[in-house]
Amino acid sequence: MPRILVFFLLCLLAAQSAQASAWLREKGSGFVSTAGVLRGPSSAPQYETRIYADYGVLGHLTLGIDLNQKGAVSESSQVSMLSGHARIFMRLPFTPDAWRMRYTLELGTGIYVRDTNLHTEKIERLRMHTVALALGRGFDSPWGPGWLTAQTTVERREALADPIYKLDASIGLSNKRLFRPLLKVAATRVADDPVSWSLTPTILIGSGKKATWAAGLERTFGPNASVGLELGFWREF
Q: Rounded to two decimals, what is the model's pTM?
């Protein structure tokens, strides 16, 4: 068990699926987040590492990168399955800055990697493309200002006849307090398989002045139900 904990901490230091967002970065500003999730209970607990970054190239164009890796680790720290993706994307606005409700279009491309039998050292690399539409809005509450965002994504993956559909939504506070709540909901539909979805209540730690820590408890529902601990770090620059 200690080896699993050490491995999880290393995942955090090395590397959030892509973060749903309806806001573009200001020109010359950027954002980076790294996160790690450890899921169980299982004889081979699952782990996931994520890196996400975006940067405002122009006032109406944000470019970004999304890296993700999933696997399972045994007591001897031998990975029995590995999958992940590397994707670049651009985000474009649908609405002017003066509008309270924001809409953005995101176009992405990259590769999906899968290795289900490490003994053969055979790794599949498949092209993938994504199209996403996001909406977001700020609001006022008795606890201070907040925001909500939702994004629906259609993902086309080489060798899959049907697209993958995803929905991500978040609601949180931006009141600059040391501790702030955040709730994330995500759902995925692959072909005719049952919908898999997750609920992740999260606490953001930090006043929001550039650096923030995130700690959440993920509950996944569906064919592969699980409970996971998520830890992450956000940085604006």
A: 0.83
